[in-house]
Amino acid sequence: MGNVEGVYPNDAVIRRLYREHVMMLAGPRALLMQAAHPVAWAGFYAQTTSKDEPYERLHRTAQIVELVTYGPRREAERATRRVRAMHGKVRGELHEAAGNFPAGTPYAADDPELLLWILATLVDSGMTVYQRYVCRLTLDERESLWQEYRVFGRLFGLPDTAMPATYEDFRRYLRRMLDGDELFVTEEARTTARQIVMRPPVPLAARPLLELANFVTVGLLPPRIRRMYGFSWDPARGLALFGHTEYARRVLVPLLPGRLRYANRAQLTARAAA
User: Fold this and answer.
1) pLDDT tens digits, one per residue of 225-237
2) CA dist 252 to 134, 195, 215, 248, Å?
């Protein structure tokens, strides 16, 4: 497998990020951010065969992301071609007004503006979790990571002209989205996304870990989106989260044995290519 060309080289920043087990915390945050865009949320559910099967869909999405990050380029390109073909068939319109979007607003799953928001939530959530739990990224590393995500976006149908050219351009785009009037959490998104993210089916013994993960997810959300969902938060919780992440970054994560800290790269590549 080591001689098979991948989308990214072995020393890519994006590969370094996603071999960390703690990066699993980025997924729930990204999903809640995605659902805060009412048109993107409608497109997300239009692609889901059943609202009763969200975890199967999320699992398939994670497999494709893993394939692009660690698998052979040929397989990644084949899989993302299938995704683009499916996106090309998804068309619809909002049945009800949502924020600044009136009823009847059309959506398409291959709309570059919607795809860019989906990509942005992955980038921002990945960077946020990694820097809070593992280590700070230098400006050069952030730039490299954004350029690697542009490759990711391109595979899923985003033209270069639709993506910010530099990391600083990306940060400006994200600030504009977070401060602007496009984001609005509908009642359906508030109920369903919270159900998916905060109450997944887990064994009883894993409930304490789920509660911790939920605390982290809520705390790491952009404040405006957190308020849109109606999540409770206060300075005391903010301090508790800061202490938790500082301890993890400075003490816990560095001392973890590799088998607990990292996903096995060989296994990731083999699993992605399967």
Assistant:
1) 999 999 999 999 9
2) 10, 30, 18, 4
